[in-house]
Description:
CATH topology of the largest domain: Jelly Rolls
Strand content: 15-25%
Helix content: 40-55%
Order of helices and strands: HEEEEEEEEHEHHHHHHHHHH
Largest sheet: 6 strands, antiparallel
Number of strands: 9
Number of domains: 2
Structural class: alpha+beta
Shape: globular
Distance between the termini: 35 Å
CATH architecture of the largest domain: Sandwich
Strand order of the largest sheet: 1-2-8-3-6-9
CATH superfamily of the largest domain: Jelly Rolls
Number of helices: 12
Amino acid sequence: MDHLVWGAALSKLHSTIGELTEEDLCIRIHYWGALAEHRSNLEHKHSFFEMCYVAGGEGTYVDEGRIHPLAKGTLFISNPYRMHCIESTGMQLIWLAFDVDAGRTSAPWNGQFARLAQSDCYILHGAENSPAVLLWKAIMQAAAELDTARFPLDRLVLALVAALPQTFTPDRQQHKPTLPPPRSASLRQALQFIRDNLESPLKLEDVARYFHLSGRHLARLFQKELKMTFTAFVRQERIRLAAYLLRETDHSVKEIADLTGFGSVHYFTRMFSAAVGIPPAAYRIAPQQKGMPFEEEHA
């Protein structure tokens, strides 16, 4: 797979972002990506699946502390809510992020993807000729070279995702808020990353570096498209998650402060009170406060 065609392919593949449906399977494509020199990123997690293929170079994949070597031909998948990172000085890497709409998908398909999400079989070495990789290469080539108005890619993409539960199985190894089509792909990915990692320290420069951007450029995207700063968005999402946890769980205020990245109860209480008008403990028991503290403007 020639990395020189990746740019042309990605511009077409972004048209598949959103929901794709075929009979009893409904998936949501979050984003596609490709880099000729993918470098190390921060440890993080997603609320969705992210499948990656190493087209060239070497590196390391760390999943929940387990270390795996990466080389040309390695196919791997980051399952939802698993802490992971990639370490490399420069790999040719392509990736696809997606999840399954459980409410519009049949029980058999939901069961297959639920088992995939819990499986420890998430990496395949020497997968160049596996059906999933061959199909992925065909999709990239078709996107780069064909008129996609006459040759729709949707069904090929659905077929690729549908192949994954059978691809990542023990016998094969032996031989979570939907985003709209992007204003900007970089911003959309950054918003999802923030929401998936609210319990972690989130600094503008670190998030920008993960997406191979400058902090200044990411800050401009927030101001231009959301009319708010990076810091204000992170704080808003932490407050939103805290309100949900206060309403729907029995976690203590201290636990919620930790889960939402505020750290201390004092700081959490001060920020929550300033945003919502009452302290967290009062919000939990007040019937009139059962709505969200913010309208869902950016989900």
